[in-house]
């Protein structure tokens, strides 16, 4: 398969809408397509299964608890039924895998190029036409992973915490493909808050009410 550009690079794709247009709401507080060039999200009503990989997690760090808090924060921010979350107990049961950058990735890249390395975190998916490809599990098991999140605890601090980083990267995984210019937002490039702000919520609520251009 030819190499494709992953999430972390600009995606300028000719895509078709996969859901009917929804009524317009207040505009987003910042551009949710800034990093991707396309609006992507999960289908309405989907329950997003998130697996927290324990491999390589530093002693004293509870990545599972941080992922659960991030899921709760985004579900509360949405306040609707467009999507929900559940914790997956295995990688084979997951839509999204969260792992530390020191741990080996559990999935192949499905033909996409290796994502660039960033100091703190990377959210990756592999686009094809109007949907993201399933990322095959390296152990040969059947799975349905669409998104791989890597976070680096060593790049965090008392101000820019690992909890804030996990919330930030999960925000990318649910469909906010941009960074806020405001440091008070969790989608700021170096997040210092761990709860979505009113601006993050406005952007999220706009995004989930738009037709899907790229389906996760």
Summarize the helices and strands and which ones pair or pack.
Elements: E1 40-41, E2 46-52, H1 63-78, E3 83-87, E4 96-100, E5 121-124, E6 127-128, E7 131-132, E8 147-151, H2 162-174, H3 198-207, E9 214-215
Parallel strand pairs: 1-9, 2-3, 2-4, 4-8
Antiparallel strand pairs: 5-8, 6-7
Helix pairs in contact: 1-2
Notes on the structure:
The chain is α/β, with parallel strands linked by helices and 216 residues long. 18% of the residues lie in helices and 16% in strands. It contains 3 helices and 9 strands. The protein has helices at residues 63-78, 162-174, 198-207, and strands at residues 40-41, 46-52, 83-87, 96-100, 121-124, 127-128, 131-132, 147-151, 214-215. The strands form 3 sheets. It has a 5-stranded mixed β-sheet, with helices on one face. The protein has a two-stranded parallel ribbon with strand order 1-9. It has a two-stranded antiparallel sheet with strand order 6-7. Helix 1 (63-78) crosses helix 2 (162-174). The longest helix has 16 residues, at 63-78. It is globular.
């Amino acid at each position: 398969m030819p190499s494709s550009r992953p999430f972390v690079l600009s995606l300028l794709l000719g895509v078709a809408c996969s859901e009917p247009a929804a009524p317009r709401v207040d505009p987003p507080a910042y551009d949710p397509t800034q990093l991707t060039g396309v609006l992507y999200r999960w289908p309405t009503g989907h329950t997003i299964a998130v697996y927290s990989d324990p491999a390589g997690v530093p002693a004293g760090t509870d990545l599972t608890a941080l992922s659960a808090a991030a899921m709760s924060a985004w579900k509360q921010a949405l306040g609707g039924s467009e999507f929900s979350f559940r914790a997956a107990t295995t990688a084979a049961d997951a839509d999204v895998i969260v792992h530390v950058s020191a741990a080996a990735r559990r999935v192949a890249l499905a033909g996409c190029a290796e994502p660039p390395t960033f100091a703190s975190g990377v959210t990756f998916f592999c686009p094809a036409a109007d949907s993201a490809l399933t990322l095959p599990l390296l152990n040969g098991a059947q799975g349905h992973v669409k998104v791989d999140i890597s976070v680096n605890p060593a790049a965090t601090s008392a101000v820019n915490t690992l909890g804030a980083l996990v919330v930030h990267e999960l925000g990318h995984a649910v469909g906010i493909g941009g960074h806020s210019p405001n440091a008070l937002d969790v989608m700021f490039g170096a997040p210092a808050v761990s709860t979505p702000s009113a601006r993050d919520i406005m952007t999220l609520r706009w995004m989930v009410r738009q037709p899907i251009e790229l389906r996760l």
